[in-house]
Amino acid sequence: MDLTILGGFLYLSCGLAIFVLGLLVYRQGPDVRIHRVSAAMLVFGGLGPTLGGLGVLLGWRGTDASADGLNLLGGFAYVWELFFPSLLLFALIFPREWPVLKRFPRLPWLLYAPHLFHLAFLVFLGFLGELDWDLRLRSLPGGESVIGTIATLGLRVLGLLFELLTRLHTRFFSFINLVYAASAIALLVASWRRLRSPKLRRQMVALLLGLGSSMILYAAAVPLPNVIGWDPPVALRIVLVSVALLVGTGSIAFAIVRQSFLDLGTVMRRAILLSAISGSLVILYFLTARPMDRILLAQSGRELPIFETLFVILVIVFFHPILGRVEETVDRLVHGDAAGHGNLIRRLGRDMISILDLPELIATLVGNLREALALDSVHVALLDPGHRRYQVTQDDRSLLDLPLDHPLVAVISARHDPVASRDLVDEADSPSARAEVRSALAALNASLVVPIHLPEGGGCIGFLSLGSKLTGGRFNAEELTVLSILATQVGIAVRNARLHAEAVARKVVDQELAMARSIQEAILAGKRPSLAGLDLAALSLPSRQVGGDYYDLISLKQGRLGVAIGDVSGKGVPAALLMSMLHAGLHAQVNGTAAVADVATRMNQILYHATSHEKYATFFFGIFDPLDRRFLYSNAGHNLPLVLRRDGSIDRLREGGLVLGVMEDAVYREASVAVEAGDVLVLYTDGVTEATDGNGEEYGEARLVETVRRSADRGAADIVRTVREDVAAFSCATGFDDDFTMIVIRAIPAA
């Protein structure tokens, strides 16, 4: 007897809990179809064990009132079978709607038609059965006559036919329920195989395990006994059907609480906790405060609600802290540390801080949001480093580029909180702007847009585009708050990633420039030739890590010396690359027997064809012959080299032609000059004579000549050093604004 009562209460309480959960699900989303269908499954599924539990308890009491209650329950006994069409409809729309529903929009109503007919038919048969019973009780006037006997016999036969038809219909319909359930499970398995979201796959596994077990129990209770001809006790059927429904609907409840099914876990959990704590407080009130006040009344003879008042005060003070602590404990026990929206923020924030690669950061953000919220798409739009447009990339390709004057950029930049895409369309200020906004949002498949702002201000640096939920649900208030906080963390992480990328890029560039400088220094500071009767010195100081000035001292056949100096347009790496081209081209020419003018002509053609028209180079090339002590040269637009004579005169070497690279058919001439003992040949670039002081005055050729003359009796290296120090002192700078290059050739008597 005690076990019967316990079982009845268990069925009743579990059924009611699932029934109420269905009502809560419906209350959270009455306009969302997936919520309505899920609520119908829970309500009809909870109705079965509820009616079964009531039937057990009323049957145990055995009174007349209990008999009437059982008859009333019998009238509702088959309503719970609407669980099966609800289950099949759920499988057709979760997680994505099957195409058959679009082709046949009335299919959901047709799914319920057999069960509605089933209910109507059973009600009709029951009515006829009662009518037959009444007629047989009252019989007919003249019941002993032949007509009365035939009529009574006919009514009894009709009653037997109705009873047989009822049994056949009931047993046959159990197979229809089984077909519905098997079809639903097959559809859910097919959907599970197509799913890519780990969160939805976990939800589907929980549902499939529960529904599969439920169908096995249901088959054992109704269809299977009908097939094998075994008629189990009614109580056993009730137990098996009730347990089947509890397992099936219980798996949905488990998915809601444990797996955040339909994104209702937090809401449902708070509702259940609030109800449980409120109920516990009511029970505690009746067990403590009321009895204590009764004792006080018996002792004092006066009604003093002291304990009731104290209990109310304690509830007001401690209710919310207790609720928060209990909710945290339940979250920790049910979810662990890996789930929940608060944990999503902490986990993503921690991960994003440690990710300094922007593509990896975006991939991590997209993957986590897509899984946590079960979204069909997530995109990240970021303002490019040049602040010209917002760019959205997907799979390393550009998905969408939005210039700063795009209407969507305007409406997003004015917002700081998440906003639905339809609201963004409405905020555009003209029909054409609304059309552009609608088109851009459609390209992103955006359902919700979350602006990304830096906490210190500075405008909108991007936005998150979130697609629809795979469950068909809406974004709730908690999720919107989480996304707002997360957007700020994303902004900080993006800024950190870009700063790190810039630092890495600078480091790489510095390393490459250091290598380029070492190569350039190797070119410029090659093995310096030694010729009898000449004292040679040269220096090149780039204004940056690499420069565009070029000089060369080349040993030629018959003891001759090739001298070259040039200045390429521009500075830095482009100029250095052009300088290396001059070096290679010159060395390819001078080992032949070409004249100096021919070398200049060919260098011009090389530079003209290899560079754009805005690139050019000044160039000077000459050959010193120690036999006749003459210097043959050609000047292609370079600063005029100076020959400072012992007698104080100066020869400027100007014969030649245009700068290199300007005209393809430029003509270059050559000339020669004698270089006697005591003469000093000075070749330089404009970085020497055009260095300026604080007033903008240039160092100039006159100062250069004066400085060289002061140190002309010393070695060539001393002359170069003296000029460098004097130019630095004049310009009051430790470095140079332009490349500083100088060659000094001092003629001395042959040994």
Features:
751 residues; 17 strands; 6-stranded antiparallel β-sheet; alpha+beta; Beta-Lactamase; 4 domains; 23 helices; 6-stranded mixed β-sheet; elongated; Rhopdopsin 7-helix transmembrane proteins
Explain briefly what this protein structure is.
The protein is of the alpha+beta class.
Please describe what this structure looks like:
By secondary structure, this protein is α+β, with helices and mostly antiparallel strands. The chain folds into 4 domains: 2-263, Up-down Bundle (Rhopdopsin 7-helix transmembrane proteins), CATH 1.20.1070; 273-334, no CATH class; 341-501, GAF domain (Beta-Lactamase, 2-Layer Sandwich); 526-747, Phosphatase 2c, domain 1 (4-Layer Sandwich). It contains 23 helices and 17 strands. The protein has a 6-stranded antiparallel beta sheet, with helices on both faces. Strands 8, 9, 10, 11, 14 and 15 form a 6-stranded mixed beta sheet that branches. Strands 7-17-16-12-13 form a 5-stranded antiparallel beta sheet. Helix 2 (33-61) packs antiparallel against helix 3 (64-76), helix 2 runs antiparallel to helix 4 (83-93) and helix 11 (265-300) packs antiparallel against helix 12 (306-334). The longest helix has 49 residues, at 146-194. It is elongated. It starts with a helix and ends with a strand. Residues 63-75, 132-140 and 333-339 have low confidence and may be disordered.
